[in-house]
From TrEMBL:
Residues 1-11 have a biased composition (Polar residues). Its EC number is 2.3.2.27. GO terms for biological process: intrinsic apoptotic signaling pathway in response to DNA damage; protein monoubiquitination; protein polyubiquitination. It comes from the Eukaryota. Residues 1-41 are annotated as: Disordered. Residues 44-83 form the RING-type domain. The keyword Repressor does not apply. This is E3 ubiquitin-protein ligase Topors. Transmembrane segments: none annotated. The keyword Zinc-finger applies.
Length: 117
């Protein structure tokens, strides 16, 4: 977890100035691939074992097993490491433009009854 906070600051700055520049979703995906290649040791912070289907959080790009962070997201949708809320998990990453996205369901509002459609 050496480059996590820096990456978060960069993303936050980019989001703050997004009014003058186009969205950089592809850029964040590139960062994902780069982070994977430059990591010397790969251990999941949740199960403390080797990654089982490496997955990234969309906001902070911290890495976990996809099953681990998926289970974690059922309890709370925030990063176990940096506490940043996240809305989707990127997993099955093969290339910067070849990955799958697991989008969390929005938290159910306590004051509204979900309707079926
Ligand atoms: Zn794990
Ligand atoms: Zn994080």
């Amino acid at each position: 977890c050496t480059t996590g906070p820096n990456t978060g600051n960069i993303l936050t700055t980019a989001a703050a100035t997004s009014s003058s520049s186009p969205p950089t979703s592809s850029a964040s995906a590139r960062a994902v691939v780069t982070a994977e290649e430059t990591s010397p040791d790969s251990k999941c912070p949740i199960c403390l074992d080797r990654f089982n289907n490496l997955a990234y959080l969309d906001r902070c790009l911290h890495r976990f097993c996809f099953p681990c962070i998926q289970e974690w997201s059922h309890n709370k949708a925030e990063c176990p490491l940096c506490k940043q809320p996240f809305t989707s998990i990127l997993h099955s990453v093969r290339a910067e433009d070849d990955f799958k996205e697991y989008t969390l369901r929005p938290a159910p509002a306590s004051n509204s009854i979900p309707h079926r459609c």
